[in-house]
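Thread amino acids onto this structure.
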């Protein structure tokens, strides 16, 4: 006599538990990786009380130049020299209609380094230049109204 395995009963419902496990693992991976995806070099931005919102700076195709505290220049995540900055910015804005470049500078960077970077960017033919800052966390209390005379 030959062995005949017996088939179990057929399930009418799909088993979605393994799919849910995979989806939870993918969710955790994306939650961990997403904050690491940044545009350009990370610097400690200067804090200001009344910053201007620049939502276009967060786009994937935005041109961002970073000035670090030691005076190094980064175009996106690529380190560039001051002499090469004009040519590389000119190459990136040549095919664009809106010629906007954003500069983010470390709060402890030398003022002369930031001005030199801005001069190099302006000499590339940039129409609009945005300086990226961070909103100050300490809210100033509103001053009292002047006394009525």
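Threaded sequence (149 positions):
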């Amino acid at each position: 006599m030959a062995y005949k395995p017996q088939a179990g009963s057929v399930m009418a419902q799909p088993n979605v538990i393994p799919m849910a496990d995979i989806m939870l693992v993918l969710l955790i991976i994306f939650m961990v990786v997403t904050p690491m995806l940044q545009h350009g070099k990370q610097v400690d931005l200067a804090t200001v009380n009344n910053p201007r919102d620049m939502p276009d700076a967060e786009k994937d195709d935005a041109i961002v130049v970073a000035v670090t505290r030691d005076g190094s220049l980064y175009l996106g995540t690529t380190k560039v020299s001051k002499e090469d900055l004009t040519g590389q910015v000119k190459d990136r804005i040549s095919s664009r209609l809106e010629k906007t470049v954003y500069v983010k500078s470390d709060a402890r960077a030398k003022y002369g380094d930031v001005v030199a970077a801005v001069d190099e960017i302006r000499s590339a033919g940039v129409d609009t230049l945005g300086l990226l800052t961070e909103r100050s966390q300490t809210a100033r209390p509103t001053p009292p109204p002047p006394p009525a005379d």
